[in-house]
Amino acid sequence: MATDRIRAFIAERRPEGPCLVVDLDVVRENYLAFARALPDTRIYYAVKANPAPEILRLLASLGSSFDTASVTEIEQVIAAGGTADRISFGNTIKKERDIARAHALGVDLFAVDCIEEVEKVARAAPGTRVFCRILTDGVGAEWPLSRKFGCSPEMAIEVLERAHRLGLAAWGVSFHVGSQQRDTEAWDRALAMAAGVFRALAERGIQLRMVNLGGGFPTRYLNDVPEVGAYGEAIFGALRRHFGNRIPETIIEPGRGMVGGAGAIKAEVVLISRKSADDPVRWVYLDIGKFGGLAETMDEAIRYPIRTPRDGDRVAPCVLAGPTCDSADVLYEREPYELPVSLEIGDEILIEAAGAYTTTYASVGFNGFAPLAAYVI
Length: 377
Fold this sequence. Notes:
Blueprint: H1 4-13, E1 19-22, H2 24-37, E2 41-46, H3 53-62, E3 65-68, H4 71-79, E4 87-89, H5 96-104, E5 109-112, H6 115-124, E6 129-133, E7 141-143, H7 153-165, E8 169-174, E9 179-181, H8 186-203, E10 210-212, H9 228-243, E11 249-252, H10 256-259, E12 263-273, E13 282-286, E14 306-307, E15 315-321, E16 330-340, E17 348-351, E18 373-376
Parallel strand pairs: 1-18, 2-3, 2-11, 3-4, 5-6, 6-8, 8-10, 10-11, 13-15
Antiparallel strand pairs: 1-12, 7-9, 12-13, 12-17, 14-17, 15-16
Helix pairs in contact: 2-3, 2-9, 5-6, 6-7, 7-8, 8-9
């Protein structure tokens, strides 16, 4: 939620236009909560969630490792004080020259999900470690992931054996249970599959070392979510069930769970109107929409908490939309949003829990609207 520090910053600085304000104190608290919940697991912050240099510097100073998706993100981490031995190139879709560049920078942990990607890593980064991502169903996630990444567990066995034969270190298995995952037991199903891959490769004389538990740890939006400690207990229990006393090295990749609740967006009501004289539903247009930072409202998957200066007044349903000349720039219509009937044009609102996937998951200047400004305090 918007902390007192965020509210004070907005009140004192009066930044023009929509902007995100992130409170580093919350990021620090979240990192320490993950470390307490899973003390034997290494934390690899998912840089894509929010790559602000201040966030990367803080996490590097706390001892975090980093999950990166591109050479640019690798370079951002190194510039912020993170070392290459704490970086994973976690994107399974990489140009061979980018693999070579990452290897030259010292990165030696790469994600794969097919033999073709293994062959690229073997040519461009010989002798490095690879882990294979397997597909999961994503049941229980508010933002389920598609079949774009990962392969079947049966294929993962062949992929990792091929890596071993090519001189790479077949290091382990990864999965992602879906973003904003509220089911603490989701990791149990995935770990059962991972353990099967470990056993099959052991029978072929290849000893895997690591399970990448992925991300999926949620931020509280409109609904309550389990505490981080509940995830830690559930994950450790699942590890014991499926791996017994031979629990492998584990890593997690929190992104949304690390920074989502640390930020709030200041926005302004640009227009309030109706589509006919007897239309019971108002349309409330903001100066920020899908293309300016709220892309995760796609299919109304993420429903952000919204605070207005008129909270406490009578509310009624409205359609919430952005300012661009694109009919897709509607945030909530299928399930209208309840906002005060007294809301007026020019009112400033706070969109809370918006620290993740807002400054980067957006267009650059669509319709001439500037990219979302960001402040880290």
